[in-house]
Design goal:
By secondary structure, the chain is an alpha+beta fold. It is 35% helix and 14% strand. Strand 1 and strand 2 form a beta hairpin. It is elongated. 3% of the residues are buried.
Amino acid sequence: MAEALVSQFKPVVGQKHPITEIVLIPSGGGRYEVTVDEELIYSKAATGVHTTNDDIIQQVRARLK
């Protein structure tokens, strides 16, 4: 997922990269959470559903606007 986010949100020459930091924290049972600017945008622990990279990318893009 981190690779998909980094490749999707490449910096534009002369501009800051739109993503300041990506942090991956291992957890048991395949659980993970995705935050943007400390705002939770997805939690597998809360939903019980494994989402797709495309869904996360869309949610991140919406927060960056």
